[in-house]
Q: What sequence folds into this?
C-alpha cells in the first residue's frame, strides 16, 4: 500500500498541482481522473485516504484538506518503508474539478522516451535532478505485464526486444509475461528489495535490469541523468 499511496500523490500533483483532484469521482460536470490511462485499473489506496479523512474529521472537522492528507500519506509511506523524510508544509486547498485530459497527457507513461518524460517534468517546474530523484520511488511497488511487454518482444516496432535489457533478466520476465496472455501478472519494480525504500532501484538500472522503459532510459539515453 505504501507504493500505491506514493503513486496517488505523484499522479495528483502532475495534473493541476497537489490538490486531491485524483480523489474525485465522476458526477455532474466532473469526469474523474480515475478513468485516465495512467490510473484506470491501477490507482489504489483511495479507501485508505477515506479512512484517514474520516478519523481526522471526527477530531477536527473542516480543518485538514484531502490534498494535505495525500501529501502526508506519501511522506509517511516513504519513511515507513525505510526511505527519507521531509517537511510537508500544510494548507493545501482541495480542488473541486478534475482533468481527465491532464491526467492522460501530463503523467509520465512507462513507454515514454527520456525527452518526453523530462518535458513533462519541466512543465511542473521540475528539472533533471528532480526526475532522477523522484524516479527512485520505483524502489517499491509493482507493474503489470502490459506496462513493459513491448520491451520484451517489440520495443521498436520491429519484433525485437529492447537491446538495453539484460538478457538473463529478460528471460525471467518472459516466464510470466508471454507475448499474449498474462496481462494482469504483476512484477516488482525493484526485484532486489521490493518492499524496502533503498537505492537498489538505481543499482538495477546500472545493470540494465530496470523493469520499465521509462526507468531504464534514465541510464541509457542521457549522460547527465546517468551521472546523477
A:
Amino acid at each position: 500500500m505504501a507504493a500505491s499511496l506514493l503513486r496517488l500523490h505523484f499522479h495528483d500533483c502532475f495534473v493541476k498541482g497537489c490538490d486531491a483532484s485524483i480523489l474525485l469521482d465522476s458526477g455532474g460536470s466532473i469526469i474523474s481522473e480515475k478513468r485516465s490511462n495512467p490510473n484506470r485499473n491501477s490507482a489504489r489506496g483511495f479507501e485508505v485516504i477515506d479512512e484517514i479523512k474520516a478519523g481526522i474529521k471526527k477530531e477536527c472537522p473542516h480543518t485538514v484538506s484531502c490534498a494535505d492528507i495525500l501529501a502526508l500519506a506519501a511522506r509517511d509511506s516513504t519513511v515507513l518503508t525505510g526511505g527519507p523524510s521531509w517537511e510537508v508544509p500544510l494548507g493545501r486547498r482541495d480542488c473541486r474539478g478534475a482533468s481527465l485530459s491532464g491526467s492522460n497527457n501530463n503523467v509520465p507513461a512507462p513507454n515514454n522516451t527520456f525527452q518526453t518524460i523530462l518535458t513533462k517534468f519541466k512543465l511542473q517546474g521540475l528539472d533533471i535532478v528532480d526526475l532522477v530523484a523522484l524516479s527512485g520511488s520505483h524502489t517499491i511497488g509493482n507493474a503489470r505485464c502490459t506496462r513493459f511487454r513491448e520491451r520484451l518482444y517489440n520495443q521498436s516496432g520491429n519484433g525485437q526486444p529492447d537491446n538495453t535489457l539484460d538478457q538473463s533478466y529478460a528471460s525471467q520476465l518472459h516466464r510470466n509475461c508471454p507475448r499474449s496472455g498474462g496481462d494482469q501478472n504483476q512484477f516488482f519494480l525493484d526485484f532486489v528489495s521490493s518492499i524496502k525504500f533503498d537505492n537498489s532501484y538505481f543499482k538495477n538500472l546500472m545493470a540494465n535490469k530496470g523493469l520499465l522503459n521509462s526507468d531504464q532510459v534514465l541510464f541509457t539515453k542521457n549522460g547527465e541523468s546517468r551521472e546523477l
